[in-house]
Specification:
The complex is a heterodimer of chains A (431) and B (515). A two-stranded antiparallel sheet of chain A has the order 1-2. Chain A contains 19 helices and two strands. Chain A is an all-alpha fold and 431 residues long. Helix content of chain B is 31%, strand content 26%. Chain B is built from 17 helices and 23 strands. A six-stranded mixed β-sheet of chain B has the order 6-7-8-3-9-10, sandwiched between helices. Chain B has a six-stranded mixed β-sheet with strand order 17-20-21-13-22-23, with helices on both faces. In chain B, strands 11, 12, 14, 15 and 16 form a five-stranded antiparallel β-sheet that branches. In chain B, β15 and β16 form a beta hairpin. In chain B, α4 crosses α5. Classes of the chains: A mainly alpha (431), B alpha/beta (515).
Amino acid sequence: MTSLKQLFGGGARQFGMVFALIALVIIFQIATGGKVLTPTNAQNIINGNSYVLILAIGMVLVIIAGHIDLSVGSVAAVVGIIVALAIRDWGIPWWAGILLGLAVGAVIGAWQGFWVAYVGIPGFITTLAGMMFFRGANQYIGKSNTVPVPEEIQTLGAGYLPEWGPNTGLNNWTLLLGILAIAGVVYGELRKRRSARRLGGTPVPLWVSITRMVALGAVIAYATVLFGSGRVGTSFPVSGVILGVLVLLYGFVSSRTITGRHVYAVGGNKVAAALSGVNIRRTNFFVMMNMSVLAALAGIVFIGRSTASGPFDGTNWELDAIAAVFIGGAAVSGGVGTVVGSLIGGLVMAVLNNGLQLMGVGSDSTQMIKGLVLLAAVAFDVYNKVQGRPSIVGLLMKGARRGRPADPGPDDSTAGTGAVPVSQNETLARS
Amino acid sequence: MLDTPVVLEMRSITKTFPGVKALDQVRMTVREREIHAICGENGAGKSTLMKILSGVYPHGTYEGEIVYQGEEVRFKDIKSSERAGIVIIHQELALIPELSIAENIFLGNEVAAPLGIDWDATREKAAELLARVDLNLSPDEQVKNIGVGQQQLVEIARALAKDVKLLILDEPTSALNEEDSAHLLDLLRDLRAKGMTSIMISHKLNEIAAIADSITIIRDGKTVETLDAGAGEVDEDRIIRGMVGRSLDHRFPDHTPNIGETFFEVRDWWVEHPTVADRMVCKGSAFEVRHGEIVGFAGIMGAGRTELARSIFGRSYGRFRGGEILIDGEPVELHTVQQAIDHKIAYVPEDRKVQGLNLLDSILDTIVSADLRRITKRRVLDTDLAFLASEHYRKSLNIRTPSVRQGVAKLSGGNQQKALLGKWMFPEPDLLILDEPTRGVDVGAKYEIYGLVQRLADAGKGVVVISSELPELLGLCDRIYTIFEGRVTGVLDREQADQESLMRLMTGTSPALTN
């Protein structure tokens, strides 16, 4: 049990989600007779969902801080039409269009952040108003027309990395990204071991590190081949690269910067945060503004993918993003959640959509299944909390525990020690 | 009283919380038509016992048995104890301010009509109940418009509406002024004369001596003894001896103060209530703290001690209306909490779960949370530094946990308090303001916290201790300021101070002293 936990690192909830995601992919792969894991389909999943995943990254910070943002779809839509019109009618270059779009997102974010952080209107109300207002603004500005966008913007939403260098049988950019990712995994693992030794603890057993590196490396290598071996001219999608950069950036901001810790502090206990010197208003302003900037980016990526900006872009995106965040383990009451978890939560929804579609399940049934998955994922969290058992691992490994004595490791907070409340179920599971 | 029949017997009650045995084989016998008082220090287990009796902790979560009116009872929730006629009135009043008195009285116990609620009958019955508690108010009055003393009477009326046979009052007079308290005690006597049995938890020993027929004393989760007023066993000294049970000398570590120069001064400090305009919570307060000194703030609840502390701590309470803070003789402006932390001030709040800790955090995250800049390298948080810092405080404060990565919510009260102290020692402040540092903490952890406060003082820091427990202030502090209705009414050196002199200054019954 302990070594299994060590194998998958600290975030047991995230391990559960990765597990669910892999299981889902395998099930659909079998059920569709191998249609899921093809280069084209994998590229489609990324291209068709990157904008929702970008929203989920911003949304998780909003939800950690204890708010919600319902306006993201409308904000994306209004930014989309402004960018499309500015490029077509004012003739500004595509990159200036993107900068303009992000600036508009920042202004909208500042507007919503002002009401939430400085006036104290709940985020739900502020952004419900924003949802209506910016939807209307999109249709007012675009006169409910569909406006096409130039090639470069389309590359952003549906394009691929260029071909270069020797013929490796794979797209070379994809190959390079894959190699960098594997190197990153190895470096991270070695760093973790070094840090554990320096702090006077014992690092996890060597075989655990190696297994972890090999397992993760194999998944990345497989993905590299999968994305890189499509027809010539395709690769890991550009929108996927943007998403990857954002995940790394926001993962870092949320866990390794003061601003990030303050977001968790505000969501966890606002009063205690205020008495610890956290500027509550500035933190709330930051998360709301950041969300709208990311919504603007998502809107730009989307008009690229659909080659035009239309009056109904972004409808219901807020709900998809919120669902991804909650499937990814965030708490409605705030203070809990991770960027990576939300990414995985979003991918679970995306694979579910894609797999069911490939199986020929209608969109009616797909909606119903997605609804139940959301409910089940959150119910699972709630159940575990009530049981005093924090992780999905505990439940999955219940059988495995039976034969072995509890062996509390340094990062195993649930097992063994007298001061920790032991639930009845857990006692039963151990005996 | 020994001749009246027994109405309630609690036998061998044992209740364990994670890491703490709150009650150990406690027994209590209550006779019909008596006022039975339960005495004990904070954390002795009085409230826990009453929560068991009223079903807040249901049958099965404790050991032992409860015999009520001759039968063993097993309450599964508050509703089931109320059906048996046992009603508890908690220390924190549970009235809803926006509703009327009548609505509050019958909340959860509504007078049903064929369709919905019979409002005429509700009002009529409420008026009757108000008459029984001698409260001359309209049943339609909103609760937010009436005083605390009147609210307490509404609570009793609400209990009467439930056909109460055994009334439990947890600290009924702690929030009341003398007049309201006296009125409430009269009402209890009156109810007793009409056949009511009451159990009362109180810290006010003079009230207990005046009203109780018998007294159960609990110490450290065990029943120490039962005193019978009819047998002339009850006086305040006798109760204190039972409650404390050991000489006061050993509750505090030995300490020889080493006091230096004054470094922190507050002058003519005025603060207005955050929502009630024109109500001043600090009225020209002034005090000073010297290096190596432990300074106490004594005052009854609502006197303005916390308000004074928090308004100094970066104006985190109320509206600033004038005054000066001097550090090392230089005036400083502390407009935000961050500025206060930057000026080496720390404030450890009174309610650790509500104001002090993010219960979702690990111990590690908790300890570094008040000064994240100290664990950053080039603006990036260094998790190794955070780990080393939290390990340091885990060891030096003796926080009992298998790992600093464990959630702070899993710690016992005393260890949580130590983690909170660690959080505020981490920024290495020169002045620490500790607001009720031992509230809800067991006796062993109290002793450790006292030792810690003394060590901080020995390191040259100034420590301000706000406490409602006078023995704590007397045992710990070198100098004690008394505060009454927002004013500093006096300051006593350790040698001059005793409970009586402090109490006179705290209640405004003695002219202001200065020295």
